[in-house]
Design goal:
Two copies of one chain form a homodimer.
Chain A (H helix, E strand, L loop, with lengths): L2 H6 L2 H7 L3 E11 L23 E3 L5 E5 L6 H18 L5 E2 L26 H12 L1 H4 L3 E7 L2 H10 L4 H27 L11 H4 L35 H13 L13 E5 L6 E10 L10 H16 L8 H17 L14 H17 L6 H15 L5 H12 L1 H18 L12 H13 L2 E6 L4 E6 L2 E6 L9 H8 L1 H10 L7 E4 L2 H6 L1 H4 L4 E5 L9 E3 L5 H14 L3 E5 L4 E8 L2 E9 L2 E3 L6 H8 L5 E2 L6 E2 L5 H9 L13 E3 L11 E4 L6 H14 L3 E8 L11 E7 L5 H4 L9 H8 L4
């Protein structure tokens, strides 16, 4: 079958070809401040290493293994690893950091390298590590890297099968075998491009490792000790059948029977075929030639991953002979070793005295023309990745690996990598509040998922648009929407909170203060209440909406037209409205879980502070540049808008957007203090007299609600609650958590963690 | 203070004057088929007579007392009593009915009349009834009637106080005392108009009752034995101070000290002042001169209640001397007795030899001119009531009480009233599905409230527009919206049901059949699926709306434009849509409570059956005349519309509204079978193979939902569920209950009662 031709003739296949399931795994050693391998146990905060789906240990107790689930895109897989690194970072023992280089840091004597501990584990994990220690030595097993897992979408394989008149299972096998053969043939190119382990520390005793059957190499041109013959490799070239999965599996079993492998995981080839458990069907392929890149905060750049993805597609399209003979396999093995040691300066075995650089450039060109033929237009990101690597081949000296070598030479292997390790952490910290695999989700949900990752809770996004997730651990399952809509609250309590009139009635019956007022279902009756409310400060709001929509505050209430306008605005949002006394004092958001106040926040209305030079418009633009400010609940703070409400509010102060406030003067742009309309968040959890928390608890109790965001007006937070000095103005059934986790000022109150605990995921 | 003048000058007061709190109480004797007083105990189905807030027993075990809470309008109070009568009717022992006349049916010997039983009650109920038996005789205590309770709105009293520069408490006392004095003075008029007890059965032994201190009266001109001196009255005129509440209360206490009354309830005056518990503040006034009217299904017409309300307002406005001296009181007492016995033919004590009829007409005229002066325009209903009573005074012979007398004379006292009792029951049954006090609520909520009434559960309408109620009994409280949104369901389960994609995923994971299909968040991707679905019968629907909105069924799916139109229609309702295989078979609604199937309904799409003469338009108009069909969920069935979807569906069958179907031919007007779009409901609870109920239970279990309306397509209801012969297409978190309680065909499945039980109100 001609796969390239089939794809060329079908635009739908061309689109599906780019989709797939993308997974990433990475290993990292923990080191102390001096660059010595850590001897501490796996951090307790990272949960059980046996059951944890994302974070575990590899060979050594000090060697973390981070695993992303299969994701819909490269960015997501990459972002998942970024967030796993962030989670690990936050749980590292004091003074420890992550080693950013594939080649290990300062190692102790081989036998002192701690094996991963699995106390009481009976499934052979301990025995396997003891076997590896004997065969490879513990030092070599600490060499670390990243793996890229990939599979095509089932839909792609099904449609391609249809297009080529092939059975799906037959086609699937053919597709993956072709890709793997081409990858195996050209892996030298990938090693040459992705190699970032040209130097090792003396404590690895490289010379001892290179004795025996291993080739005694690595010199100044080298790019990857890890991918060289003395790196993380089997003692000899292991040959298998690449013409059928059946043959491949049979050969693997044969190698195990011969005692050359203990199990399939020990096949240290740079490309592996993975099959489904208990079967021969291919589940995915695994690319293992990615060295840790000390320049990248995640250890691997998106460029590299995109290039690998491109190369997979190229490998699918490129014509080849079906065979991949033992001779060819040995040649490919040797070429990998050569390029690992000499880079693209290695001699091309097909044309003596010619550096392999020439063939590398040829392949890159062929890749482009192959894609163009199909036709598969490259996106900007893929094009950039391709150019990036093309330049690295053309101008060897400026290739990243040579930068790396020079930096190591200049600063020293340990000092340089310690510095890079710290730089990675600093970079990771910058936007640690995000879950980088799920940037489209609301921030509250990102935080909850991040906490779930830490605790090793499995999760699924049941409806990504709705932020509707399922959390699973063992037999326990919980459904959560938007982080705070859970099974903890009975539906009727939600409805009672949704209806401000009902909320108020229930609170009042329990003697809890709420603003006095009236409700109206009829706009004319509401207007007719003018005489009653005239001259009193009032809040006019819809019965049951959120986010401050339709709310007006009339402090003077001396203008009947403004009163009627406010009524009309509220009626736009709901069929019923409330007119309430405006309570003086500041508003605080109490977050309650299980009747207990776990965080209190004060929100300041959107504001800017003058400097005597910039206009309000300019000050807002400046404030909005803060990376913590975004749009649509994906950042802890929202950008300040300059729309009708803001302009109206400025106008009421005799200001406009071009006014220039005095230095130090705070100008508010809104009356309401919602974060969603650009307000600032300030943690007050420990600053408010405890009596108010008691009232908030009683209110949650009265509504029979487990999770709520309660808004209370308090006149003086230092004085105990008493008659007339406080009032509950609203209870929200879907309060954001991110504002308490990443406030403008103050402490992270870990509501993500607290919600998981409340849900019973300890 | 001049109240009339104050009101005349203030339009807002004029509006508020007509508002108030209206309550109604009525007593009814239970009788057997022969008209003898029932000797059975109070029906068990009516709950505890001690705690029941609405239905209890009065003096005798066979004497029901029905009590409405204070309502916002006369119609509501009247409707509440109508529904209480319906509830009682449905619980009566076989053969029993309610006696429609104030004067009792065939009584046994006095001592054989059963007292109300309160086994083990220690609060004096038994002793009080024994005391009443001694003083009045049991027979007299069985005389029954209705009471009308009324109070002005606090807002009215407050504004009137403001307008007249009076303290609210002072004004309130003055208002009620003035009204009561005027009512007491003119009560003869009300007795004359509302008297409906001109005749008694011989078993009452009227002559014996009239012995002793009582006047020996009642003759052929009489209108109310009940309100006469030998009726339900104290042995002597009891005089009290009507110039202050303090004096009134003191006099009552004095009467009790003298042994003339056992407690204030024994003051059998036609107008009573009621004060708040433990205080002297007036809570309301009670008008007690209303005889049961055998012509009215509720025992009292809305005309009568409106007239009483008018007379209260007249009594407030009418000028008078503040005093109501003991002499005046005795005269008013006597005049009541005279009119009760002689009707308006009684001699006017103020102008000898003139029938009091003349004064009556004068008062009615004065009432009108008084209202006109204020000015208080009468609504049509009040005007009709006034005219009705004016005619009754003018043309005595045609007055209702004289009709009554003639009918009794013709058919006999017992036979006539048995017939009327049956007629009342027939009338009540006609729209027994409604809760007549709450016709603005959804029918499901009306039914739930009716069941709550039966069980003696207190309730409040927290938000009437939202059908949001609170049920209370002892310490237990439950919040319910729209009858089926309760505390039983966790919020996350509601959200899972709201999202059809999530529902399907959860069901499938449990091996429960759902239609195959795809979901789309992007309209272009949905359109691009044309090739995939072309030629397959599909349903295209929004992810999460109800009531069949946005759903299209394409059985051929051979027209891409129609496919795209259906996609656009679905996207109008939601941001995500589903395209699913259209399942063949019939659709059944399974209603589950606590994982158990409690009702199954088949819904037929809106349809008409031809008669060979009428057009489809005419057939629909005819079918829509059924009183069970209405609009907006206040009837068990909805009217069939003739809008775009119906016309489109007819067009697809080659028909239009003017087509005349053959006799017996069923023409469907819609594809979807929702009751909300005019469908028919048919109970199938006992007709479907039990295996399907098992699947429905498993589905509810999987979603962790207690109350759900599950829609399943079944190919053959007689065969057990198996692969490919059924499919769950939706689970609704807010299913209507009225369709199962009052189906087009079949049994009432009492879901109202079952929900109350599930909520823990046994």
């Amino acid at each position: 079958m001609d796969i390239a031709k089939a794809i060329a003739g079908n635009p739908r296949l061309q689109k599906l070809l780019w989709k797939g399931h993308f997974g990433l795994e990475t290993e990292r050693l923990r080191v102390d401040e001096t660059g010595r391998l850590a001897h501490t146990p796996h951090p307790e905060g990272l949960g059980s290493k046996v059951d944890h789906p994302f974070i575990t240990t590899d060979f050594s107790e000090s060697q973390l293994e981070l695993i992303s689930p299969p994701m819909d895109s490269l960015q997501e897989a990459h972002g998942f690893i970024q967030t796993l690194l962030n989670v690990v970072r936050s749980e590292l023992p004091a003074g420890e950091r992550l080693w950013p280089q594939s080649m290990p840091p300062i190692l102790p004597e081989d036998h002192q390298i701690p094996l991963a501990r699995f106390d009481g584990d009976a499934s052979g994990r301990i025995e396997y590590r003891e076997y590896l220690s004997r065969v490879y030595g513990r030092s070599r097993q600490t060499i670390s890297g990243s793996h890229f897992n990939f599979s095509f979408r089932a839909e792609f394989l099904e449609q391609l099968a249809g297009e080529t008149d092939t059975k799906v299972e037959t086609l699937k096998e053919a597709v993956y075998l072709k890709v793997v053969r081409n990858l195996m043939r050209h892996r030298w190119l990938l090693v040459g491009l992705l190699g970032r382990s040209p130097v090792a520390h003396e404590s690895l005793h490289l010379k001892e490792l290179s004795s025996g059957t291993l080739l005694p190499v690595c010199c100044e041109h080298g790019v990857s000790i890890r991918c060289s013959a003395i790196g993380y490799r089997n003692p000899e070239s292991l040959l298998t059948d690449y013409s059928s999965i059946e043959g491949y599996s049979a050969d693997l079993n044969h190698l195990i029977e011969q005692g050359k492998l203990l199990n399939p995981n020990e096949l240290y080839l740079p490309v592996r075929i993975k099959t489904v458990p208990d079967g021969d069907a291919v589940s995915h392929i695994e690319l293992r030639m990615i060295d840790l890149d000390p320049q990248e905060k995640t250890g691997v750049s998106l460029h590299s991953l995109r290039f690998l993805h491109l190369f997979i597609i190229y490998s699918l399209l490129k014509e080849e002979s079906n065979g991949f003979s033992p001779d060819e396999q040995v040649q490919a093995d040797n070429l990998q070793n050569e390029v690992a040691c000499w880079g693209f300066a290695a001699e091309d075995p097909q044309s003596p005295s010619t550096p392999i650089q020439k063939r590398a450039l040829h392949i890159l060109k062929e890749l482009q023309s192959q894609l163009a033929k199909v036709p598969l237009p490259l996106t900007k990101e893929y094009l950039t990745a391709l150019q990036h690597f093309q330049e690295a081949v053309e101008h060897g000296e400026s290739a990243p690996v040579n930068h790396l070598k020079r930096a190591i030479a200049e600063k020293g292997f340990i000092a340089y990598h310690l510095e890079r390790g710290q730089a990675q952490i600093d970079k990771l910290e910058q936007d640690a509040f995000k879950f980088h695999a799920y940037l489209d989700l609301e921030l509250s949900t990102q935080l909850l998922l991040k906490a779930a990752v830490r605790r090793g809770i499995h999760f699924e996004l049941l409806d990504r648009k709705q932020n509707f997730i399922r959390l699973t651990r063992d037999a326990k399952q919980e459904y959560v929407m938007q982080a705070t809509k859970t099974s903890l609250d009975p539906y009727s309590s939600i409805l009672a909170m949704e209806n401000k009139k009902v909320t108020k009635q229930i609170l009042r019956e329990k003697g809890i203060a709420t603003p006095t007022g009236l409700d109206f279902a009829d706009i004319d009756e509401a207007r007719a209440s003018w005489e009653r409310f005239r001259g009193q400060a009032v809040v006019i709001k819809p019965l049951s909406t959120n986010f401050g929509l339709g709310i007006s505050i009339l402090k003077e209430n001396s203008d009947e037209a403004a009163f009627e306008q406010a009524i009309a605005t509220a009626f736009k949002e709901d069929q019923q409205i409330l007119i309430e006394a405006y309570e003086t004092g500041n508003e605080y958001r109490f977050f309650l879980i299980d009747d207990q106040v776990v965080a209190i926040l004060r929100r300041l209305p959107a504001n800017v502070i003058g400097d005597g030079r910039l206009s309000i418009r300019e000050l807002v633009a400046l404030k909005n540049k803060d990376p913590l400010r975004g749009k649509g609940y994906v950042t802890p703070l929202e950008r300040i808008e300059l729309k009708e409400p803001e302009q109206r509010y400025l106008q009421a102060q005799g200001l406009d957007l071009e006014s220039v406030p005095d230095a130090g003067k705070t100008i508010f742009l809104r009356e309401n203090s919602n974060i969603s309309t650009g307000g600032d968040s300030i943690d007050y959890t420990d600053r408010i007299h405890s009596s108010y928390a008691g009232i908030a608890s009683a209110a949650a109790n009265a509504l029979r609600v487990k999770i709520t965001g309660l808004d209370m007006i308090i006149q003086d937070i230092d004085r105990p609650a008493g008659a007339g000095n406080h009032s509950i103005i609203e209870m929200n059934f879907n309060p954001a958590i991110h504002i308490h986790c990443h406030p403008h000022h103050g402490e992270n109150r870990r509501l993500d963690e607290r919600i998981l605990s409340a849900l019973g995921f300890m």
